[in-house]
Amino acid sequence: MSTKNPTTSPLSEVEHIKARSRLLRGTLAESLADPLTGAIAPADTQLIKFHGSYQQDDRDIREERRQQKLEPAYSFMIRTRLPGGVCTPKQWLALDELARTHANGTLRLTTRQAFQLHGVLKTDLKRTIAGINATLLDTIAACGDVNRNVMCNPNPVESRAHEVVHQWTVRLSEHLRPKTRAYYEIWLDQEKVAGVEEEEPIYGPTYLPRKFKAAIVVPPLNDVDVYSQDLGFIAILEAGEVVGFNVVVGGGMGATHGDNATFPRLADEIGFIRPEQLLEVAENVVKVQRDFGDRTNRKHARLKYTIEDRGIAWFVSELEKRLGYTLQPARPVVFEHNGDRFGWIQGHDGRWSLTLFIESGRVADREEHRLLTGLREVARVHKGDFRLTPNQNLIIAGIAPEDRPAIEALLETHGITRTQRASPLRKNALACVALPTCALAMAEAERYLPDLVGLLETRLAAHGLEKENILLRITGCPNGCARPYLAEIALVGKAPGRYNLFLGGDKRGQRLNRLYRENIDEAGILAALEPLFAAYARDRQPGEGFGDFTVRTGHVAPPGAERGAPTARA
Ligand code: SRM
Ligand code: SF4
């Protein structure tokens, strides 16, 4: 298994940490046992990501602690691996319990259909991860230089095709899961298996150069934003059956302010495959990236840069060489929307699903809106399952018609029904976590979103646009965790209270937006948007979205290509 270094530059430090780690063990066990600090050893902070956790500190009190000469208030974020975002009521109840006993009393639903717990102390880390595993969920590969949580449209009760796609999602997640026993030894006290030579058959000892993300989607819904993934599979249906998938590669969102060598990129469509080829195609895409991805510069190490540098034709030829066959031409696909469809939907089996709006995915009790408690009560009586959406919302799925009234009553009692009456702008908006836990945040996102939306709602209402569904996404830095470069309006944090404003995405996740204003504060944001709202109200064409309008009328530059055009450099 070769790991080609495409440049003569030295390998990045993380590569050395991985190489020395004995398949992700490092000194994690020793770090966890060290009573003198709430932190773990610096090299272990890289390795623990592969186990589904990040060391963080409370940034709200960082300065105060520094002045008191105390170490930062260290704690850990834990992220689950949850293919397609599906969990049982029992698993929900276990996570709810862990959130209240060992974390900060909230559950965070992420933009990749997973759960996050925040604020777990080092002393509670092992028992929390063990508690998650006791529910038959795990956290392995939720972070780190490996394939992350695999996404798919979250509502398999809706059609046979969705059910099939969910099964492929689980299989793909399992297939690309690291095979090291380190996770089970460190967190679950399982014995080292004597005499067995351990290996990582897909990844090798240094795993991938960088994180890797995959999703499967059933058109016309593009709620997973398939073109933002390193690897995407688009289901092709004939008479309702999945006959194969179009393969897309090389998407990604992350960028760095002021560094034009980094940029968001939409994935390229490279061909069509039959269902039984999915796992080998995925494995070989991963292996091409393993062997040719840049291991010297982590800002240039995603698959999108490998493809951008070497060309998509090179990539396809390298992939086909490994597969031993050529891909068929991609089939035509049409996407209509990348948002969630809120409210009640009856499935093909007669059972109901309810898609609930959860602002920024934060499940918490806030005054009269008792989401955490309300959903706990629902989980106690619910006989179907829960499905986390890629847009930070939640589906209570598989509700028998006779059970619906009880669930409705619980949601009403806990003030959740009222939150569902929010404006389309609010319900469709995404915000990443940002402050106070995210080490990389430059500005607020989740905590700022509610107020910002309120201000925008007032401006929209002044132009009779209060019912418009405009896709707003905000992140605390240019890494793009809420996939902002696909939004109609995006704010990307630059400094406290200051953002870059991007405009011109579509509602289908197929066009990158453009930088419109740089480094502006709240007044600047409102001043920039106000005349555009007025013009949109006045001059839009029937059915035209806000993003399409800003492009058509030349407020933002027209797209070069709808896919694969690295134009929204942050
Ligand atoms: Fe992310 C890093 C949160 C989805 C691109 N992301 C982080 C970290 C771990 C910060 C860090 O490295 O110290 C954030 C933890 C914050 C916290 O306190 O919880 C973080 N990312 C999130 C979540 C929780 C955002 C959310 O509000 O839901 C999402 C968790 C998803 C999951 O369950 O796995 C999350 N991150 C994404 C996405 C969206 C997606 O995957 O569809 C992206 C853009 C797509 C992509 O990867 O290109 C994304 N996160 C990044 C990047 C930029 C990567 C790059 O290629 O440049 C970083 C920074 C990094 O890796 O160095 C990052
Ligand atoms: Fe943190 Fe930036 Fe991701 Fe937001 S976009 S969670 S600020 S890394």
Record keyword descriptors for this entry.
about 30% helix, about 575 residues, about 20% strand, alpha+beta, binds siroheme, 5-stranded antiparallel β-sheet, binds iron/sulfur cluster, globular, disordered C terminus
What does this structure look like?
The chain is α+β, with helices and mostly antiparallel strands and 570 residues long. It is 32% helix and 18% strand. It is built from 18 helices and 22 strands. The protein has helices spanning 13-20, 28-33, 42-50, 62-67, 89-102, 122-134, 160-175, 182-188, 278-292, 303-310, 312-323, 371-381, 404-413, 416-419, 424-428, 449-462, 522-539, 546-552; strands at 53-57, 74-79, 86-87, 107-109, 115-120, 151-152, 214-217, 231-238, 241-249, 268-273, 343-346, 352-356, 362-363, 365-366, 369-370, 385-388, 394-399, 430-431, 472-475, 489-495, 498-503, 514-520. Helix 16 links the parallel strand 18 and strand 19 (472-475). Helix 5 runs antiparallel to helix 6, helix 7 runs parallel beside helix 9 (278-292) and helix 12 runs antiparallel to helix 13 (404-413). The longest helix has 18 residues, at 522-539. Residues 563-570 have low confidence and may be disordered. Bound molecules: siroheme and iron/sulfur cluster (SF4). Siroheme binds at residues 54, 56, 77, 79, 110-112, 114, 116, 142, 148-149, 211, 213, 228, 252-254, 302, 361, 392, 432-433, 437-440, 479-483.
